[in-house]
């Protein structure tokens, strides 16, 4: 019985080991699939970031081209203003030239202020875009790292829960087997006790029956005893009669 229990326990351990290996293989496949999905997502993110960088580079090139074109027009306008000022100075005198010079200076200051404001706004917008992109990249990296850590923790907790469940199942199996053996022995003990009590009752009934049979047989024998004595007396008398007759016929018979 112990050998069978050992064989069953060994078989159960083998089955549990096979189940554990299958679960670990399945877990490894899930983990590999998750890592492959993360790699694909990372590749897509990198491609998207690269596309955004290229678009920003093209946008900056376009803005630089527009800025150079604007500077070129300003340079041409400045040269035209200088040429016009020289023409006015040559044709109309000093006062108009001074007014024109002041007006041109004022316009130049306004243009420089506008250009500075526009350039500052563009720089700030570019810096804001770069900062937003950097923040988005760091947020995506942090989210990916958090997702990876969370996945590892889930897998670790799942393995711990599985091991704890296996331990509880083994303890429950041992307790069930011990309880079953105990109940079996108690049931066997109760059965043996009941059989012994039943046997004692039967023996008691048989003894009482035998006692009644002996008493009845004795009573019947006692009732038949006078008749038997009479029969014996009659037999003895017949034998005595026969002996006498034989003695009369054969005198020497008795000797």
Write the layout of secondary structure elements.
Layout: H1 2-91, H2 94-249
Report what the structure shows.
- This protein is an all-alpha fold and 255 residues long.
- It is built from 2 helices and no strands.
- It has helices at residues 2-91, 94-249.
- α1 (2-91) packs antiparallel against α2.
Order of helices and strands: HH
Look at the structure and give the mean pLDDT.
Answer: 79
Number of strands: 0
Radius of gyration: 64 Å
Report the structural category: mainly alpha
Number of helices: 2
What percentage of residues falls in helices of 4 or more residues? Answer: over 70%
Largest sheet: none
N- and C-termini, Cα separation: 84 Å
Per DSSP, what share of the residues sits in E-state strands of 2 or more residues?
A: under 5%
Low-confidence stretches: none
Shape: rod-shaped
